[in-house]
Amino acid sequence: MITGKNYIGVDTSAKNSRTYSTFNPKLNKPTEWVFHEASQEEVNAAVDKAAIAFDTYSKFPDAKKAEFLKAIASEIEALGDELISVYVQESGLPEGRAKGERGRTMGQLRAFASLLEEGSWVEATIDTAQPNREPLPKVDIRKMLLPIGPIAVFGASNFPLAFSTAGGDTASALAAGCPVIVKSHPMHAGTGELVSSAIAKAAKKTGMPDGVFSNLNSSDSEVGQLLTMHPKVKGVGFTGSTNGGMALFRLASQRKEPIPVFAEMGSINPVVVLPSALEQKGSEWAAQYAGSIVLGAGQFCTNPGLIIGIKGQALEGFITNLGNEIEKLEPTCMLHPNIYEGYEKGKKELSSQPKTAEVAAFKGEVAPNFAEQKILTVAAKDFLDNPVLHKEVFGPFSIVVQCQDKAELVTVIQHLEGQLTGTILGTETEIKTSPEVVNALVNRVGRIIFNGVPTGVEVCPSMMHGGPFPSTTDSRFTSVGTSAIRRWVRPVSFQSWPEELLPDALKNNNPLDIMRLVNGEHTKQQL
Q1: Residue 10 has what pLDDT?
Q2: Which of 40, 45, 104, 199 has the smallest C-beta neighbourhood within 10 Å, fewest atoms?
Q3: What is the Cα 44 distance to its own chain's centre?
Q4: Residue 113: pLDDT above 80?
């Protein structure tokens, strides 16, 4: 049952009097649920409790934290149909998407639990002493990763489960040993509240300290600002717009003690179509990319918003086929009227730019908040001369850039901003003879795809979901996959410490039986 409360485990009698409701975009009306805005007192209480919890939780064995994460997954599953129903009502997304995202969320939690149970993620490194070394003796130095403190996590509008309350940021921070305070996304506060109740149950069942997790409701930016500026918050996880991510980044940088903000922001995910791909499978690629562009109403951070090719009959045929395929597809509902309005504004702005031409657009009747897809095309020279055309339009929209030759194609890639993904379509033979294209794209993206579509982000250790600025604020880290845990830890060296006082991961007898780097060799052997 949705009650409209904040899950912080403290007295909430000093509530902010302001309230808000979530919105059903398919019905184009507010939902029945009302939520109160978290007060400054509640923010402070949540952070204070998280700071106290950190002293205990950060020292828990990995096995105990893993038990907590697995319990969260089980409690989310136990929410059953109610969670799916609320998700669908608040997002406008279909039931199948809701169930798939729920499965991904539980899978992420269990993946981090497995990471903890194996234990080597702490990167234990040992260099033993050499007292007789000449000309200077060498002291004993041992290093491992340790959690940084309470983390503020911002729910994402386009993933009410997998990138929100118990999503990748929360799962990875809890796995690292960091308590989490979630600023719930106002578009799906009901979904967030149900998930928060599941986390609260899991915390109680597994004996977690009070304050290890909190969820705060807010419809504006005030709570997020208070969290980011709070001196006891030590890091921020964010998925959303460039404006939102950079606002948090600037706030965090202006603190007396600056903290890291790991923000995943905008990306147009360029797709390079080499002539060989279009000559062999042009019509197939057109159909696949039409589907990718409109998937989820284009509301994926990996949506292919830019297609770059070399002029010729093959590209002309591809553009024609892409337009025909796009016009066949029925528009789908966007997340919220504000998202829809932003899409329409961005589509109109780019469509009105000089020297662009419309390839295709859906022109039938649509219900409110349903996104009508559109494809434009433009010459590479005009694309390079107009920075407006480089903007992300969040929705089912894409631009085909037509280059005179491979050299101009490389120039276009080199002038792009940092991106989450880049894709190359072509035969292996042609790609082997195009290293300059591959190198240019690698330098602009976090994940490079060969003969595929960028939509779809596998949750696995080798996934890199991040990229050069402005796709993220730090291109060295991923927000998807178990490597995401590295955002919430820092390396600490222990020099000349007595054996009995060392953390278990660094002790001579290796009681955790984990892989360690000892004197330059990876081993599980005891010293």
Answers
A1: 40
A2: 40
A3: 26
A4: yes
